[in-house]
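Hi support team,

I'm opening this ticket because the web form for multi-chain structure prediction keeps timing out on my end. I have pasted the exact lines I submitted so you can reproduce it. The total is 376 residues across two entries, so I didn't expect it to be a heavy job. Is there a limit I'm missing, or should I split the entries? Thanks in advance, R.K.
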Amino acid sequence: MKQSIGAKTLAFPTPTWVVGTYDMNGKPNAMTVAWAGICCSNPPCVSVSLRKATYSYAGIVENKAFTISIPSEDYAKETDYFGIASGRDEDKFEAACLTPVRSELVFAPYVGEFPVVLECKLLHSLEVGLHTMFVGEIMDIKAEESVLDENGNPDIEKIRPVAYSPGNRSYYGIGKSLGKAFSIGKEC
Amino acid sequence: MKQSIGAKTLAFPTPTWVVGTYDMNGKPNAMTVAWAGICCSNPPCVSVSLRKATYSYAGIVENKAFTISIPSEDYAKETDYFGIASGRDEDKFEAACLTPVRSELVFAPYVGEFPVVLECKLLHSLEVGLHTMFVGEIMDIKAEESVLDENGNPDIEKIRPVAYSPGNRSYYGIGKSLGKAFSIGKEC
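Hello R.K., no limit was hit. The queue was backed up. Here is the completed structure from your submission:
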């Protein structure tokens, strides 16, 4: 029996990604987002939604660029810190003891210690309400060699990314494999 | 040492959600998506990206409505089937032995057996490229009583949703809790 929960932002799972930007003075900033996702295969695009009030918002608008750094479980605390503090008040990379690396493709920094990063050029901005949705074209993905599989692709089991649960506002690891897509459903 | 992977749609994790629509004849249809995410807190909105070639695309455009049904691990096979077959050729609900339930709020069906569903009214369409991004306002969320926590909110550990990994094109369960958001980062 289903119960009405109301009009809320509850959906499972959502990602836990860190958006990297430079501010007006070229200071690197980082902000954790869960309102985000891949949104197009060709050109390869990803969207992130930010409130105008965030310090990162101006960085994206100004530079028309951002990165997404995908944390491993090992960096759950630092990732949460990036979602609590504001780059307006402090140097978040310095406070988290993490390294801002300047992308060679877009004017935005990424988190050097995180295993996978996406370098994005701003393609579209859509005003949705409290949040503005930024669509970025993925210009390149860079990944640590240690998380690549035998075909040279990033392997989720080696990355050990973080999922976010909006209900209890908690982070989760990735669990066991449930099977191959475009395959296990053929038995239906 | 980071290696360039190229401009690809690789990000981790992505969701595994089933979009429900009616076709021009009122036949219920369902399609699995991973290019999707929450995109605004107020109004509460979610976005899903579909190729124009899909049968569901016309259903959303026609009815300006869709649902998102969130599967539990137990329905990984049926969910994968929804991503393989086309509603143009068959009645996917019937083939998967799942029940289309008509939303009372929007003209779209959801999967009766799945633990959590979002009922969405189309707010925006954005042409990104191969995919069109549809932004839907979440009018209500309905959840099985069996997946609610003591506060009446859907509990990710009871839902046991499915994450998708674009790299190896595989489904994964949700793993162990890594801690509370807006909390564990304070120790940084």
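A quick check on our side: Chain A has a mean pLDDT of 97. Let us know if the file doesn't open in your viewer.
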